[in-house]
Design brief:
It is globular, with a radius of gyration of 23 Å. It contains 14 helices and 18 strands. The strands form five sheets. The protein has a nine-stranded parallel sheet with strand order 13-12-11-6-5-2-1-18-14. A three-stranded antiparallel sheet has the order 4-3-16. The chain folds into two domains: 337 residues, TIM Barrel (Alpha-Beta Barrel), CATH 3.20.20; 73 residues, no CATH class. Its EC number is 1.14.-.-.
Length: 440
């Protein structure tokens, strides 16, 4: 039986978080991060996952309402969490477009040492000029260059991590600690995006390499994951889509000399639990309404239509006007490639189901992946994994920081009873939790 892998995503600044719930707490208070991380570790999860935002998003020139608290720097938070957890992996999203390999490799290697082998890096890229304005270059990479730079970035980082021999430092009772001869190999790299020449100043970490996570879904992104990543953060939520994505990515691995177990596919997943399936369905519907309020519904509409929609009633029908293709009213968010096609699709769904603007946005963006009693949700998760639609899931609760509490208390024990999930950690490092084997 395949074992289910689980990770916890801190519910950050986005439309999945229910701010209005009285149980919702701070997004930047360390106590919130600590609560969720300790809950995940109590549930024997593989890792704790933090997203990243490098600029506050804007809508019509004003700060987007979902970004009002910002996002703390991930590696700093994870370094603090390393001191209050023992086995839980610690994954940071860090942008490969706006960082430099030597500096980031040092920070990740340091986290791996501080956590005794639990560090992970979610490699992301951007071609967003709006975000680029916050950085010295003041610009951005063309979309075609994003993965070229990212691939070179990761390759160079691994060369830096590998430059120290595992037995580089020798302890001697009389003379103290010293380096063996040839313990640190110089790194000489001249590539398209980076030139580095020198010796790395952090010893090889307990894992050798921090775990690499990647989230791209384009063909280029899938190829990058097959060649480079240890975990891919997929967005495919249905069984059929998940199986197709799983098969496509796994079939690419042999050309890079990799086996299936060396890349774990873990889609993001939300959930709603109730004592019965009916109660859970009611709760899921209420969560959707809270996630997509009137203002948020119009904001989603404006991203597609490219124009100010504040005059429209969110509880009324879709506008008859067509999108403005050449204009953006939001900045810092992923832009929609073909607005006219998306608008036509939205109209068809709204007409077929008789949906208002808000109801349509709820239908398209606010759905839970798993809804039901703990028994139903445990069965659904296991079915996905056994059907090769995923290796596990990165769970995104709707509450900060207690949204994972019920899942750990009620669903995890059922997965353990079914023999599909560990009852305790068998290793100390994140690589061991994920069953990846030693770093190459």
């Amino acid at each position: 039986m395949k074992q289910v892998h689980l990770a916890a995503h801190f519910p950050g600044v986005n439309n999945t978080t229910v701010w209005a719930d009285p149980r919702s707490r701070s997004q930047i208070d360390f106590a919130s991060f600590q609560h969720l991380a300790r809950t995940a570790e109590r549930g024997k999860f593989d890792f704790f996952f933090l997203a990243e935002g490098l600029r506050l998003r804007e809508l019509k020139g004003r700060i987007h309402d979902l970004d009002v608290v910002g996002r703390p720097e991930a590696l700093t938070v994870l370094a603090a969490l390393a001191a209050v957890t023992e086995r839980l992996g610690l994954a940071a999203t860090v942008n490969a477009t706006f960082n430099e390999p030597y500096e980031l490799a040092r920070r990740l290697a340091t986290l791996d040492h501080l956590s005794q082998g639990r560090a992970a890096w979610n490699v992301v890229t951007t071609s967003d000029a709006f975000t680029g304005e916050n950085f010295r270059r003041g610009g951005y990479l063309d979309r075609s260059e994003r993965y070229t730079r990212a691939e070179e970035f990761v390759r160079l980082s691994r060369a830096l991590w590998d430059s120290w021999r595992p037995d580089a430092v020798l302890a001697d009772q009389e003379s103290g600690r010293f380096l063996r001869d040839g313990a640190i190999r110089p790194v000489r790299h001249r590539g398209r995006h980076f030139t580095v020449e020198g010796r790395f100043n952090v010893p090889r970490g307990p894992q050798g390499h921090p775990v690499i996570i990647q989230a791209g879904d384009s063909d280029e992104g899938r190829e990058f994951a097959a060649a480079t990543a240890d975990v891919i953060f997929s967005r495919h939520g249905t069984l059929e889509e998940g199986r197709a994505f799983y098969a496509d990515v796994k079939r690419r691995l042999p050309q890079y000399g990799r086996a299936s177990y060396q890349l774990k596919i873990m889609p993001a997943a939300t959930f709603a639990l109730g004592d019965t399936d009916a109660e859970a369905a009611e709760q899921a519907a209420e969560i959707r309404r809270l996630q997509v309020g009137p203002q948020t519904a119009l904001a989603f509409l404006e991203q597609i239509w490219g124009r100010d929609m504040s005059a429209y009633d969110p509880d009324g029908p879709l506008p008859e006007v067509e999108p403005v293709v050449e204009q953006d009213v939001s900045q810092g968010r992923v832009q929609v490639a073909d607005r006219l096609a998306v608008a036509a699709k939205w109209r068809a769904i709204a007409q077929e189901k008789g949906l208002s603007i808000r109801e349509l946005v709820i239908e398209l963006t606010g759905r839970q992946s798993f809804v039901g009693s703990p028994t139903t949700v445990a069965r659904q998760i296991e079915e996905f994994v056994q059907a090769d639609a995923a290796d596990g899931f990165i769970l995104v609760p709707h509450l900060t920081p207690g949204g994972l509490d019920d899942f750990v208390a009620k669903v995890v024990p059922l997965l353990q009873e079914r023999g599909a999930f560990r009852t305790d950690y068998e290793g100390a490092t994140l690589r061991e939790h994920l069953g990846l084997g030693a770093a190459a």
